[in-house]
User: Fold these one by one.
Assistant:
Number 1:
Amino acid sequence: MDNTALRVVFIAAEAAPFAKTGGLADVAGSLPNALRRLNVDIRVVLPGYRQVFEHGLPHEAVRTDLHAWLGSQRLDFQVRKLSIENAAPIYVIDREDMFDRPHLYGNADGDYYDNAERFIFFCRAVTALMQSWDFTPRLVHCNDWHTGLIPVYMQLDPAFRQCKTLFTVHNLGYSGLFTSDKFALTGLDASHYQPNGLEFYGRWSMLKAGLVYSRAVSTVSPTYAREIQTPEYGKALDGVLRSRQASVFGLLNGVNYELWSPETDSSIPAQYTPGDLSGKRICKADLIRACQLDESLMECPVIGIISRLDIQKGIDLIIPILSELIESLKVGLVILGTGNETLQQGLQRAGEPYAGRFAFIQRFDEELSRRILAGADMLLIPSRYEPCGLTQLYAMKYGTIPVVRATGGMNDTVSEVNEHTGKGTGFTFKHADSADCLTAIQKAVGVYRMPLVWRRIQSNGMSMDFSWEKAARNYLLLYRELTMESTN
Ligand code: ADP
Ligand code: GLC
């Protein structure tokens, strides 16, 4: 195999620990570094959000002379570089009126009104930055709709003729869909505004741009790669994806075990190892106290949920079965999540009669998410669809058994428990309905009451290896395959 360093640019709209709303940030914060350890010469580019600068890492302006066009408006911007030792360098596109805001994409009232402007600008600015470098990438790896125009601009520019593009879909449900009047801002001519291009049912989609114009498309699990080519999961883009079938790949996400392990996690009150789980009981007591739950729950199963509150995640499915869970099955429930207002109110109302056995914490709080991962017995993920899902992978590492709907990445990462053989890593259900969800939880509670089997299932999960080292190798293989193709 050719071992010369492959030059790659990795572009995303968020990356942990600088700016995070969901799993994309975890991926963008870890995958580039795992690739760097495999000798890939990789640079990361992010929007220069307020949150990135507030993070406190030293940064310096490396370019002050660049501009990008937004329609007929010339927008100057700076490029700042974050200094991080032994990590892929991070370049941020810095322009205050675009990115210096309290949130990444919007506030309680909805998305920012100018997200089209912000991310068209971002795509054009990244393209201008790459044109200005003497670092000529062999591959540009774009992620989700915010980066979808980059493959289009690259295809139109002969300077990138030798460079391949990979577009990774982390979630087909977010399509960067805008009205036709915003299209002129892209600077693309009208030939791109048609069904084989960016046009999408009377509007245009930045996600579709990425799907159509990149050399290859990947998504974050093999099952989701198949699902999105069907009408059920394809969000009306399944036809586009089927037409590119030979270039659609499903590569599973990984976990950064340096950040997500009960052996080293400093946010939890006691560390523990697969061989000695006594610390996990301390974590459970801590969680019960922190959430003001009844101490009697120490002897009952506590179920955790850590999730964006979005219809995707299926959290509404638990509302009709709440009394069954709490009164009949005697479980405790801790939910950490924010998002959809109606869902938030519905959950709060449903939980009111169950003080002491139900806690709903409505905020984004990474430290508490870790205390739930460590202190709960099970983590429930009833998603309607799930491209990969990371919390089930974290849960397994923390000896917390996932109860999941078998969809997308859940299907590829959680195997059904067989209580007779002690095999398996979690409990799965097939249909996105409350009855199926309840059946899986009933089975889980039954096995919880068999401590030896439960211990075995915990140990199965804790010994799984979903490390980025492994996952990054699959990306490297794909990068190599794409960059070895002839460019004609
Ligand atoms: P998605 O990207 O669809 O939200 P993932 O499971 O891939 O789903 O990733 C979600 C990430 O966001 C995980 O790191 C999870 O711990 C984190 N997360 C979600 N909601 C919260 C919250 N309210 N507080 C803290 N972390 C959260
Ligand atoms: C998305 C998906 C989630 C996935 C994450 C990272 O937000 O909803 O399933 O794990 O991206 O790829």
Note: Residues 22-24, 27, 170-171, 220, 253, 386-390, 409 surround alpha-D-glucopyranose (ligand 2) (CB under 6 Å).
Number 2:
Amino acid sequence: MFAKVIIDISNANVDRLFTYSIPDELEIDPGHRVLVPFGRGNKQIEGFVIETFEETTTNISFEIKPILRRMEPYTVLLPDQLKLSEWITRAYHCTRADALRVMIPAKLRGSRIKEKIVRTFLLAEDIDIQAARNSLLKKDGSPRSPKQLEIFDLIANSGLEISSEDINSYIPNASAAINALVGKGMLIESGHVTFRNPFANERIISTDPPLLTDEQKAALNIINSEEPGRCILLHGVTGSGKTEVYMQAIASVLESGGGAILLVPEISLTPQTTDRFRSRFGELIAVLHSHLSDGERYDEWRRIRFGKAKVVIGARSAVFAPVENLQLIVIDEEHEPSYQSETTPKYSAIEVALRRIKLTNARLVLGSATPSLGDYYKAKRGLFTLAEMPDRINGIPLPKVDIVDMRDEFLNGNDSIFSNFLTENLHRCLDNGEQAILFLNRRGYSSHAECRACGFVFTCPNCDVALTYHKYDETLRCHYCGAHFSMPKLCPGCGKEYLKYTGIGTQQVEEQLIKLFPEIRCIRMDTDTTGGKTSHRELLSAFGSGKADVLIGTQMVAKGLDIPNVTLVGVIFADSTLFHSDYRSSERTFQLLTQVAGRAGRAEKNGNVIIQTNAPEHRAIRLCKNHDYKSFYALEIRDRMHTLFPPFAVFIRAMFIGYDEAHAYESSERFAKGITLRLLSTYKLYNSEKELLFVAPGAAPIKRRSNEFRYSVIIKLVRTSHTAAAINAIYAFGDEFNDEYYRGVEINPADML
Ligand code: ADP
Ligand code: ZN
């Protein structure tokens, strides 16, 4: 028998199948990881077995080396994952090794992680208990070693096998004494592999599924009766009960013996969502996200691989989880940019899911209150099946939204960050003993520091961006390279004492709020306060249990929160995401505002949302008032069609990065010239040269980052049936483009910075 193996080295030169022989004593299947001798020096390297075959042709002219051993006794990749990896290699133009690596826990490779072994001890089988005990006593009957005697009695009396952890909890510092008893042959050490449990210290309260509303029933019915391989777009307003629909769809998959994957944005992963699922499905749930330790992630992954967990909840990369008989993938908040990977392979979890369901005959559900325009467009054209839930559960109304023009507020003499209307409403909310969320789309105390006298602005010495002032430790920080400096008293430009902070941050909102409401209890949540493994969860649960009146936060308060006592949501400044140079800024603003508005009034009490803005007439803000996704979609998609933006066009970006600016610049120019010719000749085959809209070389918006210069070539193509051929031509051109500054191409990058 022979095996075709992908060597676990990410390098185009070795990115092909190598043949090895399988020694008789080894049982090797596709999906096993193996150790093989590689290259002239027969260096031992890990690899993935892609296929196995029997020798048919009689003489093979080259020497075939044998596989040395299996890395794991089980296959680490399922057959559908092997096929998926082949597709990823083609679709995202990466090596097969890169495509295979994303499917297994990183630390599995190179055997950097070990099973956790629980050491246990039991009485040796053949000893005379009384004689053994006596030997532990002195002549006068007192113990030679009190600890040894205590341990011996504990184990002898219980008749059980006891773990060293448990022994130590009865008898502190027992380890040396245990070892001594083992040495005397009285105890036998045993042990077994255990799974680290990230939820070890939490209780689960199990819940029964509620009766579905008619809207939910209809949506569930569409999902359950859809053909395998199809995608359903579930458009349901915030609080319409989408999560409940996911749970019941998953329940019916489990009933028929299948498994399921639920992707949620990383940020909404820790707190409420997983608890809801675990209380319904218990130990069948496995969770994969970036806050797990390597050991925990490895153990969760194995619980999935061995079928102990059949439902995986995770962030983007959980789309690769080794779920056997995968019947359903659900992607919640499908419009979130975090489903796009920014590291190799630069995949879209939605595209991967669409491919994977074809391979396993599963179905895909994309859920959102504000679907991405591209996906809604696909649903409108019948490529996806549309299911809609336009109302909240139990006739609860969507919150009332008021828009406050902050320019009027300023003209009327109010230059604080709270409009009078928001202040009044906060008063009422607090008087009623209800809770509020204040949302600000920024982090830090203020965006940057500048001098009122000379206009000096603090910028990062390594990157072309302004530094952010952080009040808690009086520092100026760069969010791109991490450089930080303490804030000087005097302006370095003119030496005067006129430094001020422009823009607003969550800390400033908190300070001003305390001035207005001295008694108020606030929790502030942004990337500065939620560093650790549990703090995000802790802050939310403190707020959820009423330990604070107001939650102030950035993006991370916008999603998934379901707190019945929250009746007021204030958006401090809605415009901060609006006037970016990105074509998606209006779509993203609408999505974010709708999401955050959806946190208000989710139970009996009515909700109020107040959006403060300088651009009340902008459609992304105006249409939030009536939660009017469909009008927003109709206007925005019409504009995109007229101006040829995605989904009607594709942006492709090639990056050139390095310390020498002239080099970076010249590389981008040379690439632009070459790719223009290549694309024109590709399109000529179809008589469609007009589909190449432009090729634009130039400096990236952040031209210097960590002292490296960044140039890009942006290519814009009309999306047609020829686009795939054009993209392949770009990949091929990139492979031939011999330049150390070239960093590959991205299709529709999540941001253009
Ligand atoms: P969405 O995910 O669409 O925002 P959720 O699934 O979180 O909505 O549902 C909103 C609230 O309604 C939750 O508190 C949930 O427990 C509750 N809920 C959902 N479905 C039902 C139902 N059929 N009957 C009663 N309560 C429900
Ligand atoms: Zn920097």
Note: Residues 460, 462-463, 478, 480-481, 483 surround zinc ion (ligand 2) (CB under 6 Å).
